[in-house]
Design brief:
Layout: H1 2-20, E1 33-36, E2 39-42, H2 54-71, H3 77-87, E3 90-92, E4 96-98, E5 101-108, E6 114-119, E7 131-134
Antiparallel strand pairs: 1-2, 3-5, 4-5, 5-6, 6-7
Length: 135
């Protein structure tokens, strides 16, 4: 446990130091404002909304390059990538109320089986199991 904590702290320190050395692209600020319901709203970065403009494309490319430089300094990136992949393989939908029951679906991407969960309450008590139907 101590070793894992040390590696985690070391990785965070490395990221913080790497982030301090990054040089961000200059983002111009324009004088743009709109009036909505009597309130003046300043929008100095409105020019970034036009993603087809060459100036915006240049800025996006510079930001992406900087992001990749930063991400390449993360030592645990492969582990993080694997965890994200594992956590996104399972699909959950939002529970829907049907009469006195709540129903929701859980499935894995690579399997052709869906589990339909049915429960009377949204929150389960500790140790309480869901009833489910397999179709």
């Amino acid at each position: 446990m101590i070793r894992i904590s040390f590696l985690f702290i070391f990785s965070l320190l490395k990221i913080v130091l790497a982030a301090q050395n990054l040089v961000y692209p200059v983002t111009k600020s324009v004088s743009q404002s709109d009036t909505f319901f009597g309130h003046i709203i300043h929008d100095p970065y409105r020019w970034l909304e036009n993603q087809e403009a060459s100036e915006t494309k240049k800025w996006i490319n510079e930001e992406n390059e900087l992001t990749q430089i930063y991400l390449n300094t993360i030592g645990y990136k492969p582990l993080l990538k694997e965890k994200i992949k594992k956590n996104t393989e399972i699909y959950y939908n939002t529970p829907v109320r049907e009469g006195e029951y709540y129903v929701h679906v859980k499935s894995k991407q690579k399997e052709r089986v869906c589990l339909f969960y049915i429960r009377k309450v949204l929150k389960l008590k500790t140790g309480q199991r869901l009833k489910y139907l397999t179709i």
